[in-house]
Amino acid sequence: MKRLLIFTTALLLLITVGCDVRGRDGAPGASGTAGAAGSDGRSGASGAEGKSGLDGAAGQNGSTGQAGTAGVAGAAGAAGATGAEGAKGDKGTPARP
To answer: How far, in Å, CA of 97 to CA of 93, rounded?
Structure first.
C-alpha cells in the first residue's frame, strides 16, 4: 500500500512538472477545429384570435314596496268628573249704627 502511494505521488509530480515545463517552452498548441455554424430558429406560429365574450344579462327591476297600513283611530276621552259643591260662606258682621 505504501509503495502504491509513493508511485502515484511520483507519477503525478512528474506529469505536473512536465506540463509546467512544456507550458514555459512557449510551444504553440494545436489549433482547434472550427465549430459548426448555428442553424436559424424557426419563427413561432401566431396564435389564433380569441373569441368575443357574450353580452351580460340585463339586471332585474326592483319590486315595488308595500303600501303602509292605516293608523288606528284614537279612543274617545272619558267624561269629566262633576265639580265639588262650593263651601258655605262665613256669616257676615252686623251693620254699624
So the answer is: 13
Cell digits of residue 29: 498548441
> Is residue 9 within a helix (H) or strand (E), and if so which, with residue range?
helix 2-25
Comparing CA positions, the residue from 16, 13, 36 lying closest to residue 24 is 16
Strands (E), the chain: none
CA angle 76-82-88, nearest 5°? 165
pLDDT (tens digit per residue) in 31-82: 778 877 777 766 667 888 888 888 888 888 888 888 888 888 888 888 888 8
pTM: 0.21
